[in-house]
Automatic annotation (TrEMBL):
Organism, scientific name: Geodermatophilus arenarius
Keyword Hydrolase: yes
Alphabetical keyword list: Hydrolase
Protein name in UniProt: NUDIX hydrolase
PROSITE patterns per UniProt: NUDIX, NUDIX_BOX
Start and end residues of each Nudix hydrolase domain: 11-139
Taxonomic lineage of the native organism: Bacteria, Bacillati, Actinomycetota, Actinomycetes, Geodermatophilales
């Protein structure tokens, strides 16, 4: 088989992420309960379910992981992340809170949730490349 032939390619899993800033400009982060990235902080997100649109998946993932309702806005960026026998194709969207005063609570795939300002990001153990990627997209808290 020639290199890079279709038989050599890993399956691709469509995923989404939510870039949610609160009224103080802090970024919503969840600490992942499961692999990949177990114990690390990341934006809420996950796999797209069959038949689900990307915006619907983002809203569902935020609700499941934080209890918050969001309005899904524009795409802010896209990354591919190698996994164990799969490649995750992650599209991140800017989201705004439906109820700005709502308090997030961890649920589903998250064991903790926090609002992180720019200074907080340097001391949190985030998933590999998260901060650099968000910085490159201009999506970090100021």
């Amino acid at each position: 088989m020639a290199p890079d032939s279709p038989g050599d390619r890993l399956p691709v899993q469509a995923c989404v992420g939510a870039v949610v800033l609160d009224g103080e400009g802090r970024l919503l982060l969840v600490r992942r309960r499961n692999a990949p990235g177990r114990g690390l902080w990341s934006v809420p997100g996950g796999r797209v379910e069959p038949g689900e649109t990307l915006p619907a998946a983002v809203a569902r993932e935020v609700r499941e992981e934080t209890g918050l309702a969001v309005r899904v806005g524009a795409e802010v960026g896209r990354v591919t992340v190698p996994g164990d026998g799969v490649v995750y194709d992650v599209v991140d969207f800017a989201c705004t809170l439906e109820a700005p005063a709502a308090t997030p609570v961890p649920g589903d795939d998250a064991d903790a949730v926090t609002w992180a300002g720019a200074a907080d990001l340097g001391r949190l153990a985030c998933t590999p490349g998260l901060v650099a990627t968000l910085r490159g997209w201009g999506a970090l808290p100021s």
